[in-house]
Structure prediction request, 181 residues.
Amino acid sequence: MRSDVELLAVSGQDALAFRELYERYAQAIHGFFNRRTGDHDAALDLTAETFAQAWESRGRFADQREGSVGPWLFGIARNLLLKAVRDRRMAADASARLHVRADRAVVEPEQSWLDGMDADLEIALAALPAAQRTAVELRVLHDQTYERIGDALDCSPTAARIRVSRGLASLRTLLRPTRSL
Prediction:
């Protein structure tokens, strides 16, 4: 099985490679948006835009997670959500100042989508066993090597990698979308 980075690197010549990345991450990205917005259609639109931006910027991707594009994709998703809310607020303010009634979109971003955006992750992290939680935090949040994680947890780098892998798998399960695509 090819790593995310390998798939992304060949996606310009192999459309199935980008499709495989999409299939790996679409449910999780959609789940993130669905939990934030509470709107299935908005979540679908934002998910599609996330992958469109990923496609357009794939040449600028720099692997910082040893083969995983997940954090990069979730960074794009988070920025899109912030932008959707900010743009909606700016449009509403401008319309009010100009006394113009703007056409309403089918789905309007709301400030409430951002309320507690990181809480889902914090709750899911707290549910992990202590060693997995520490391993994931050190790897993902603090960008530590597996050697340093192993030192901190008094285990081998291989055991540290396994703890991170199992922790991330548990997080995917805990953060499963409430509705499927």
Summary: The helical segments are 4-10, 15-37, 40-57, 70-98, 119-126, 130-141, 146-153, 157-174. The chain has a mean pLDDT of 79. The longest helix spans residues 70-98. The CA atoms of residues 95 and 101 lie 6 Å apart.
